[in-house]
Structure formats: structure tokens, C-alpha cells
Design goal:
By secondary structure, the chain is mainly β. Helix content is 15%, strand content 37%. The protein has a 6-stranded mixed sheet. Strands 1, 2, 3, 5 and 7 form a 5-stranded mixed sheet that branches. It has a 5-stranded mixed sheet with strand order 12-20-19-14-17. It is globular. The protein binds copper (II) ion (CU). Copper (II) ion binds next to loops.
């Protein structure tokens, strides 16, 4: 039997809770899958209480206004949960998105025309809980055919490989499954061109039992073929080359950071993600609740994505970049600025 005197876990981080209880106890509490309704409700209450007592510290960040199709600080911690309704007892999340063609100044000498979603590269980070119904209403206002192909599990007719013509509307509807870090992108040929010009984004499906509280950050790596030679001349995190080198991402000392990292670089088959002066725990494709390894370089083929967790005890500026150094040197490089936490 479970001893409920451990209700004190409401002030304990959820990760500690998982270390403290056996798998059988977690199953009884509904904190692992395959549980009854009563267990699920109990588990959810405990987690919500634990989360209420855990403060995530996020230093302020400046988001400058821009007319350009990329604004990296705005992408970092921006999650689109959609318009939520209940239909036949189910949570439905509706996302209205528009494909557009719009300019982006990649650097002082390189103008670029993007194909994008809602005027931004990368597109919105859609987020749902496993089992929710997803309804994406896709308006094509870009001037020529595009589509939205989601990774995850869905019916053939929702696979998003058929062209949606200019001025047409397509509704993609499917269940959010399985939990993990996924992506979406245009699937019109040549796909390398449609993705390379910016029509892609992240799709996060949270597990039914939420992950422990953390400062959650999206980093998407991509390349820009600026002269149509089917090679990338520039690279970027979250749309704009070198942005986070010039404007390091502030994070709090000793704060759990949860990175959602996606490699969507076309033409180069592989890129790594390397973090300086630290190690991170890897949750491959975000498909597990426990990490599979700890390292400081993770290798990703195109479209691979992971959750990486770490915290910095040392303060100051620390770089992150692919260790294919020519990719890093051509714009896919950034820094975290670890801000000291005042001692209580
Ligand atoms: Cu397209």
C-alpha cells in the first residue's frame, strides 16, 4: 500500500518524486501510463501541486519589433497552444495559419525571400497534450502551392503531401500522438527548396503526465541557400544567422533548462548540437520520460530532434553550435548568458 504521509512531495521537485517512488507505486498513483482514472486524477493533482510550488526563473529578454520574417528572441519561449474547445468530451486545439511569401534580411548584404507560416521563420511552435485533437486550418496566401506535412501518427489523407493551391484552404485534423518533439514542414517538391526557404516549424506533444517545471527553450537549426546552387551559404538558429551570438540568451544560474532542439538543415546530411562547458541529458525525439544518455555533443540527421536538459552552475557566457564548424562559422552559433541567482 502507498503511504500517503509522503504528501510532502508537493514541495519536492517532480524528478525527486520519480527517484523516491517505485515503478509500482507510480503506477498506482497514475504517474505512469496504463493506470485507472482515479489514479490519473490523483497523480495529476499531486503534480499540479508540485508544480505550483516550483518556481521557474526566466530572466527578462528584449524582443525588438521587426517587419522581417525572423525574430529569434520571439521564437525562443513562444508556444502556440491553439484555440481550445471541447467537442464530444475531447479537447480540440484549433490552429489557424497562413502560408505567406515575405522578405528577410539575412545580414547587411544578403536579402532573402522566405516562404513561411504566419510571417515567421520558423513557423509557430504548436503544442498539445497527447490525445488532444489537432485541427490546423491552413490558408495558402503565398502565391503558389504549398502544404503542411506533420510528423507523428495520423491517417493517410492527413499526411499533407498534396499541393494546396494559392488562395485555397486545407484542414488537417488528427490526434496528437505520440508524445515527443515533432516537426511540420511543406512537402511540395523540391522539398529542399520549400523547407530551405522557411516553411517549417516545431510540433511538441506533451506526455499526459507533464514533465517537471523548467525554462523551456526552442532552438531550430536551418540553412539558407541564397544563390540556388543547392548548397547552404548561411545557417541560423531560429531564423536569423548569428543572432544569439550578438544577443546571448539569458538563462538563470542553477535553473533546469529544457531545450527542444530540431535540425532542419537541408543539403548537409548531418549536424551536431554541442554545448560548451557543460553536459546535457538526452531524451531522444522527446519520446521518453527518462534520459538515455548524458553528453555534450548530440548528432542529428536532417529532421531529427531531441529534448536536452541541463543547468549551469557557473555564470557567464557559454557557446552552443553544431560541431561541423563551417556550419557554425556561417551563422549557426549562439550563446547562453547565465545570470547569477541572488542567494536567499
Ligand atoms: Cu512549400
Amino acid at each position: 500500500m502507498i503511504n500517503f504521509s509522503f504528501i510532502v512531495i508537493s514541495v519536492m521537485p517532480v524528478s525527486n518524486l520519480f527517484n523516491t517512488l517505485s515503478r509500482r507505486q507510480l503506477l498506482q498513483l497514475g504517474l505512469l501510463s496504463g493506470t485507472g482514472l482515479a489514479g490519473s486524477i490523483l497523480g495529476l493533482n499531486l503534480l499540479t501541486q508540485a508544480q505550483k510550488n516550483q518556481k521557474v526563473m526566466i530572466p527578462p529578454i528584449e524582443i525588438p519589433p521587426t517587419k522581417d520574417a525572423a525574430n529569434p528572441p520571439a521564437v525562443l519561449r513562444d508556444f502556440d497552444y491553439g484555440t481550445v474547445t471541447q467537442e464530444n468530451g475531447r479537447t480540440v486545439r484549433e490552429f489557424r495559419v497562413e502560408a505567406r511569401t515575405s522578405p528577410l534580411q539575412l545580414n547587411n548584404s544578403t536579402p532573402f525571400v522566405t516562404w513561411n507560416l504566419n510571417g515567421r521563420v520558423p513557423g509557430p511552435t504548436f503544442r498539445a497534450i497527447e490525445g488532444d485533437r489537432i485541427r490546423v486550418i491552413f490558408y495558402n496566401k503565398a502565391g503558389h502551392s504549398h502544404s503542411l506535412h506533420f510528423h507523428g501518427i495520423h491517417a493517410a489523407e492527413m499526411d499533407g503531401v498534396k499541393p494546396v493551391k494559392h488562395n485555397a484552404v486545407q484542414i488537417y485534423e488528427f490526434d496528437a500522438q505520440p508524445f515527443g518533439v515533432h516537426l511540420y514542414h511543406c512537402h511540395i517538391e523540391p522539398i529542399s527548396r520549400h523547407v530551405g526557404k522557411g516553411l517549417y516549424g516545431m510540433f511538441i506533444v506533451d506526455p499526459p503526465t507533464p514533465r517537471p517545471p523548467a525554462d523551456e527553450i526552442v532552438l531550430i537549426m536551418a540553412g539558407y541557400d541564397v544563390n540556388d546552387d543547392r548548397k547552404n551559404e548561411l545557417y541560423a538558429f531560429n531564423g536569423l544567422p548569428d543572432y544569439y551570438m550578438k544577443n546571448p540568451i539569458p538563462i538563470q544560474q542553477d535553473q533546469l533548462i529544457r531545450l527542444y532542439v530540431l535540425n532542419l538543415i537541408e543539403f548537409d546530411p548531418v549536424a551536431t548540437f554541442h554545448l560548451h562547458a557543460n553536459m546535457f541529458r538526452v531524451y531522444r525525439t522527446g519520446r521518453t520520460l527518462e534520459p538515455s544518455e548524458e553528453t555534450d555533443v548530440i548528432t542529428m540527421g536532417t529532421a531529427e530532434r531531441h529534448i536536452l536538459e541541463f543547468s549551469f552552475h557557473e555564470t557567464g557566457k557559454f557557446m552552443f553550435h553544431p560541431h561541423q564548424d563551417y556550419i557554425a562559422e556561417s551563422g549557426c552559433m549562439g550563446m547562453f548568458d547565465v545570470i547569477p541567482t541572488p542567494k536567499a
